[in-house]
């Protein structure tokens, strides 16, 4: 049994994504003269979605395992399309992650003054799509929610962003649309190639329906298509540009959750459905992720813009996620899923500090122009340092357990890859410490920075929630790892069976 019991008659997973769609519709009808009401509605429903995702997380029965809270409805039976939702140890942490990030992101959005209604509507629609992707078990439904999550990014960055926002929005959109095109090819190929004429992932995942040659052909389309959103090398260049251009809450969702959609798609759609294709192609992916991990960290080291540092840091850390997935061992894949959660929380905290607390007050993110902010904003300094220590893999914080599992798991199959990737650890420490010194403890470059506005209750609350999750997961990772293990074990066993059979 789970820690709590929920009624089986209530469609809990549908309620989660509806808790974002409903406020988007409500806000669309609120008169423009009530901006605070829009903020309260958006933040209140974000809290509701967090509570719902937490309830489902706590109610999952790890002993029984498998997919629970399943909802099924024939949507378009003539085409084999169904409304099929379910939760297991892989997507439950992602649902909870999205709930935490959207609630804290909503708190960080109270400073938006331009076109408030449109901002909240698009932000909530984006989150609706994210919740849907993490719940869907029908490949067509998966793709519908995926597009709903990706498309609002163009407007959110293009209208409310900064620093070459039009360029950043267009570059992001073009890359992600190219990835979506590959995903469509993979979907259609599975639909016809399996001979089942269905998008039901539970059916497609059954052994024997998808021929080995077809898997080898279609696996790169699905994996690379989703890998574009995960920031996989060499398709990563859109990511730092998008991070820098996006407003704070969108940066939090962008790096904290959206990049995880890509990695989740690689795992759930490509690896789960096509284990034979995974066996043949993942060794190549492992080599590419070395460039992600070491190159991303090295480029972050030479950046002068604090947001670019976080952006390239995300490229490096997401490289570890894909590396763990590509290694295909139990510990590595579990570490990859844990890294998705830990990195999502850590990066959301980084952007909350840099984007909301610092940039909105100083109007600069350039390290040479900052300095001495630790005197004025000691809380912001503490939060940035906490996120930085997690990024460096400091024991006692969430990032340590995620990276430790990945490196151990990768070592089991590719020890040389693990050794080379470990070079990113000292580089990460170097650029984090450099940023901490330049922003908070170097001499004050601008005397006006000594009289900046005080932090708001929204900023304190949002950052504290993220920090508590980082510390809580770092001190007692079992509350997350045991759940993840129940979802990862069957998938890894499936990959292992294929590898043994092909020897």
Automatic annotation (TrEMBL):
- InterPro entries registered for this protein in UniProt: NADH_Q_OxRdtase_chainM/4 (IPR010227), NADH_UbQ_OxRdtase (IPR003918), ND/Mrp_TM (IPR001750)
Name one cellular component (GO) term.
Answer: respiratory chain complex I
Any Pfam family hit: Proton_antipo_M
Record key words, sorted: Membrane, Oxidoreductase, Transmembrane, Transmembrane helix
Keyword Disulfide bond carried by entry: no
Q: Where in the cell is it found?
A: Endomembrane system; Membrane
Q: Which domain of life is it from?
A: Bacteria
Q: Where are the transmembrane segments?
A: 12-30, 37-60, 80-107, 119-137, 143-160, 172-194, 214-233, 281-302, 308-328, 340-359, 379-402, 414-440, 460-479
One GO molecular function term of this record is: ubiquinone binding
Biological process (GO), any one: aerobic respiration
Transmembrane helix among the record's keywords?
Answer: yes
According to Swiss-Prot or TrEMBL, what is its membrane topology? Multi-pass membrane protein
Entry's family note = Belongs to the complex I subunit 4 family.
PANTHER family xrefs: NADH-UBIQUINONE OXIDOREDUCTASE CHAIN 4, PROTON-TRANSLOCATING NADH-QUINONE OXIDOREDUCTASE, CHAIN M
> NCBIfam families recorded for this chain?
NDH_I_M (TIGR01972)
Name the record gives this protein: Proton-translocating NADH-quinone oxidoreductase, chain M
Q: What is the lineage of its organism?
A: Bacteria, Bacillati, Chloroflexota, Chloroflexia, Chloroflexales
């Amino acid at each position: 049994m789970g820690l709590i019991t929920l009624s089986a008659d209530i469609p809990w997973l549908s309620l989660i994504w509806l808790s974002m769609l409903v406020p988007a519709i409500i806000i669309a009808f609120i008169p423009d003269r009530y901006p605070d009401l829009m903020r309260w509605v958006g933040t209140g429903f974000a809290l509701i979605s967090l509570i719902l995702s937490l309830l489902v997380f706590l109610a999952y029965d790890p002993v029984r395992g498998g997919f629970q809270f399943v909802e099924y409805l024939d949507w378009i039976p003539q085409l084999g399309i169904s409304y099929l939702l379910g939760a297991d140890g892989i997507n439950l942490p992602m649902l909870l992650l999205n709930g935490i990030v959207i609630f804290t992101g909503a708190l960080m959005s109270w400073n938006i003054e331009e076109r408030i209604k449109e901002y909240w509507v698009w932000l909530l629609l984006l989150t609706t799509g994210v919740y849907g992707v993490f719940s869907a078990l029908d490949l067509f439904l998966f793709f519908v929610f995926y597009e709903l999550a990706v498309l609002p990014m163009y407007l959110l960055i293009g209208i409310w962003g900064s620093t070459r926002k039009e360029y950043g929005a267009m570059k992001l959109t073009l890359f992600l649309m190219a990835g979506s095109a590959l995903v469509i090819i993979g979907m259609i190929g599975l639909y016809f190639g399996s001979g089942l004429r269905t998008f039901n992932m539970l059916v497609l995942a059954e052994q024997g329906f998808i021929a080995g040659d077809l898997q080898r052909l279609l696996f790169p389309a699905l994996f690379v298509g989703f890998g574009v959103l995960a920031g996989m090398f060499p398709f990563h260049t859109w990511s730092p540009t998008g991070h820098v251009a996006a407003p704070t809450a969108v940066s939090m969702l962008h790096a904290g959750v959206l990049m995880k959609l890509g990695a989740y798609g690689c795992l759930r759609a490509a690896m789960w459905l096509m284990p034979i294709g995974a066996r043949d192609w993942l060794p190549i992916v492992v080599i590419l992720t070395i460039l992600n991990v070491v190159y991303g960290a090295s480029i972050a080291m030479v950046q002068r813009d604090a947001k670019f540092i976080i952006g390239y840091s995300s490229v490096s850390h997401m490289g570890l996620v894909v590396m763990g997935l590509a290694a295909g061992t139990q510990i590595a894949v579990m570490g990859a899923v844990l890294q998705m959660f830990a990195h999502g929380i850590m990066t959301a905290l980084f952007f909350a500090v840099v984007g909301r607390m610092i940039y909105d007050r100083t109007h600069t993110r350039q390290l040479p122009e900052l300095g001495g902010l630790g005197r004025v904003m000691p809380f912001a300094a503490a939060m940035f340092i906490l996120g930085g220590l997690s990024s460096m893999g400091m024991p006692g914080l969430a990032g340590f357990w995620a990276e430790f599992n990945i490196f151990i798991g990768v070592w089991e199959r590719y020890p040389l890859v693990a050794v080379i990737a470990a070079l990113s650890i000292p580089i990460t420490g170097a650029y984090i410490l450099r940023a901490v010194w330049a922003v908070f403890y170097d001499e004050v470059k601008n005397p006006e920075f000594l009289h900046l506005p005080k932090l708001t209750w929204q900023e304190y609350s949002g950052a504290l929630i993220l920090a508590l999750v980082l510390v809580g997961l770092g001190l007692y990772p079992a509350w997350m790892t045991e759940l993840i293990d129940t979802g990862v074990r069957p998938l890894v066993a499936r990959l292992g069976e294929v590898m043994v059979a092909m020897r």
